C-alpha cells in the first residue's frame, strides 16, 4: 500500500477500520501467494516424478511410444500446473471485481491453450509413432501422404474444441456460432463440390490403398504406368512412354484398374505361337518349356507351362506361360524367350507356318 492510498483510506475510515482492511488485504494476498507457491512446488514435484519414476516405468514396455510422449509432455505439465495456480490465485487477490474478471478470463484462455497444446503434442507423437510402424511394414509411402492431413485435422479439431470451451466460459451462445459455421460450410461445399469430391476420393484412396506409390497400374482406358504421387485432388502416373498422367481422384475411385504390383511384384508372361499341322504337340510343349527355363530371368517356381489352345486356320495354336521376378523385366524377358524359340524350333525342325491360301481357278466354259 502506498502512502497516498493510506491517506485516502484514513480520510474516510476510522483507524480501526483501516487496520482491519489492511489485515484482510494482507491475508488475501498471503493466501494467493500460498496458492501460487503450492502449485509451483506441485509442478516441480510432478516433473521430478515423471522424470525419475515415469521413465523407469516406460522401460517395462516394448514400444518407445510412451517414452517419446513422456519426453514431450513433461514441460507442458509444468506450465499447465503453474498456470492453474495463477488462475486460482487471481481469485484470491483483493482486486476490483471487474479486474478479477478480466485477468482471470485472460488466464483461463491461456490455461485452455496450454492444456490443448499438451494434448496436441501427445497426438502428434502418436501419429509419428504410427507412421514409423507403417514404414517398417512397407506402407510408409502412402502413410506419409496422410501424415500432414491427419495432423491438420487433429489441430483443427482441438482448436474448435478449445474455442467452444472458451466461448462457453464467457457465456457466449455456442449454438449460434455452430449454426453460422454450418451455413458457411454448406455454402463453401456447394461452391466447390467438384474439388471436395476429389479430396474425399483422395482420402478414400489413402485409406483403402488399392495401390501404393511406385506400383504399376493399368487403367480402364488401357494406359499403364507407375504411380508417382497420391495427392488430395489428383494422382500422378508416369506412363511407360515417359509421359505424366494427372488423373482426378474421383475418376480413379469410380473406375476399374489393375494393380500389376499386387499381391506382389511377380508377373506372368504369355507367348502365343503357331506350329504347322502334323507337328508333335507334346514335343513342341517340351521345347517351349525348356526354352523358357533356359532364360535366366524366368522363375523355376512356379514353373513354365505350355498348352495346345486351339486349331488355327493354318497352324496349331500353342501358348507358353512363365513367371518373372518383377513386372519391370517382363518385356525384356519375353523378347529373349522369343529369340531363343526361333533358334530352338530351327534346331528341332519345328515349323512355324505362314498363313496360306489356295486359289483354284476354273477355266470358263465357252
UniProtKB/TrEMBL annotation:
Gene Ontology cellular component annotations, sorted alphabetically: plasma membrane
Residues in Mechanosensitive ion channel MscS domain copies: 194-260
Mechanosensitive ion channel transmembrane helices 2/3 domain span: 153-193
Domain Mechanosensitive ion channel MscS C-terminal: start-end pairs: 271-352
Protein name per the record: MscS Mechanosensitive ion channel
PANTHER family to which the protein is assigned, alphabetical: SMALL-CONDUCTANCE MECHANOSENSITIVE CHANNEL (PTHR30221)
Record's keyword terms, sorted: Cell membrane, Membrane, Transmembrane, Transmembrane helix
Species of origin: Pelobacter propionicus (strain DSM 2379 / NBRC 103807 / OttBd1)
